[in-house]
Amino acid sequence: MDRRLLDILVCPVCKSKLRYDAEANELICTVDRLAYPIKDDIPLMLESAARELAGTPSENVPATLVSQPRAGVSQ
Ligand SMILES: [Zn+2]
Hints:
This protein is mainly β. The chain is 8% helix and 23% strand. The protein has a domain of 52 residues: N-terminal domain of TfIIb (Single Sheet).
């Protein structure tokens, strides 16, 4: 994708600058947690075309997934 294009593109929802995810080929708005797809090098800057991102794993790990193994419990 053209880096100069990335410089002028903003999120249509919050007008923030976007981050280009080369691996997923998406433009990411970290404010709204939306990912805008890029089709044939043309970003689809539509809220309806964007997909919602899940929370960052390092920030939002559910407590159920970090439960400690119960070793050495004697009764
Ligand atoms: Zn946004």
